[in-house]
Amino acid sequence: MKKYIIGIMLLGVLVVYSLGIRHQQPKITPPTSLAANNTPSSTTSSSGTPPPTNSSSTGATSSTSQNSGGSYKDGSYTGSVGDAYYGNVQVRATISGGKITDVTFLQYPNTHSTSVYINQQAMPYLQQEAIKAQSANVNIISGATYTSQAFIQSLSSALSQA
Amino acid sequence: MKQTKLIMGMPITVEIVDNNDTRLLADTFKFFQEVDNRYSTYKTNSEITHINNGLPKSKWSAEMRQVLRLCDATKQQTDGYFDIEHEGKIDPSGLVKGWAIWEAAKRLRKRDSRNFYIEAGGDIQTYGNNAERQPWTVGIRNPFNRDEIIKVLHIKNKGVATSGTYIRGQHIYSPHQPNTSLTDVQSLTVVGQNIYEADRFATAAFAMGKDGIHFVERTEGLEGYMVDNKGTATLTTGFGEYVYA
């Protein structure tokens, strides 16, 4: 059980740490609770250990100094709340097939303009899905404006259901 | 009761389930006709056409001034992405549709309609419930196949607007990159506190390309559903609240 917790902690640290590095925002510090409690220096130095946030070679992680050599166990994991300078950050990771398939921000700062700017750059983790046809049995349809020709098609099909 | 009319170059549908006074429908359509007469850039005699032909500001109607003020405010709120000026002319249609639906809905509310929707060209304001006393169901059209629905929402007392290039894209362009076609994003659906909010921000956020969904994410009161050119949808964190199927 411990190794999963460590794994999630590592993930949270990695995400926040990478945000800080990527954007070179001098005011950002990693969430202190995460950083202080769970990152012995060996962890940060072996930066290849946590799997990258996107799919990559996960099997190669066992050669590091960590005990948890294997891949992650499937499931959804919620990280602790990290208190960053600019607000709280909390993520949830979903593991599937031993890989991180999704990272969701449960909390993120949105208070002042600096944070808004950071969020704009650093929030690529909105949920995604492949579009899929659903039942067309709805009251109203939302879509972009029709051309007159498309309108005629649409209207006739709509009226046939009305 | 339910009726569809073609006004402003698009079908407008009004359904009212708790009132059978047909004057409500007639007056609503009359209002949209008046809006078209005033704001259509296609009509040679509309006020907006007169303005674009040099009508002095002192002769603009109070309503026109108000709408253009809203356009200015929206431009500021969207970092310039919402811009009604193009090639020396102004065209507020990106805001007028949502504004008109919202105005029409407020008028129905004042006349004791509690359960109804107004839809104009795919933009929607709902109130209360449908005839089955269930929340109104709103389908998001598949931008790749107009006969398909790709998401079903439950929308109560809120506005839903979808922007896209897939049918009539000429009214949306990026003011910051006017020659760039907006092909990364196929459609962007926004749910807002009302259709005025949903429509104007959907229009602006669509012009931001793939950044648009992040703009929706961080704008209070908005949720969004973006479909990109690969058929992948991106959802804002609160969008699931509206998803029925």
Folded structure, characterized:
The complex is a heterodimer of chains A (162) and B (245). With 162 residues, chain A is an alpha+beta fold. Chain A has a domain at 55-162: Sufe protein. Chain: A (Alpha-Beta Complex). Helices cover 36% and strands 20% of the residues of chain A. Chain A is built from 5 helices and 6 strands; from the N terminus they run H-H-H-E-E-E-E-H-E-E-H. In chain A, strands 1, 2, 3 and 4 form a 4-stranded antiparallel sheet that branches. In chain A, strand 2 (82-84) and strand 3 form a beta hairpin. The longest helix of chain A is centred in the N-terminal third of the chain and has 22 residues, at 2-23. Chain A is elongated, with a radius of gyration of 22 Å. The N and C termini of chain A lie far apart (57 Å). Chain B is of the alpha+beta class and 245 residues long. Chain B is 32% helix and 28% strand. Chain B contains 6 helices and 12 strands. Chain B has helices at residues 22-39, 47-52, 62-77, 93-110, 195-207, 212-218, and strands at 2-7, 10-16, 85-86, 89-90, 116-120, 123-127, 136-142, 145-155, 159-164, 185-192, 223-228, 232-235. In chain B, the strands form 3 sheets. An 8-stranded antiparallel sheet of chain B has the order 1-2-5-6-9-10-11-12, with helices on one face. Chain B has a two-stranded antiparallel sheet with strand order 3-4. In chain B, strands 7-8 form a two-stranded antiparallel ribbon. In chain B, helix 1 packs antiparallel against helix 4 (93-110) and helix 5 packs antiparallel against helix 6 (212-218). The longest helix of chain B has 18 residues, at 22-39. Mean pLDDT of chain B is 90; it is low at 166-173. Chains A and B meet through helix 4, strand 5, strand 6 and helix 5 of A and strand 1, strand 2, strand 6, strand 7 and strand 8 of B. Strand 5 (127-130) of chain A pairs antiparallel with strand 12 of chain B, so a sheet runs across the interface.
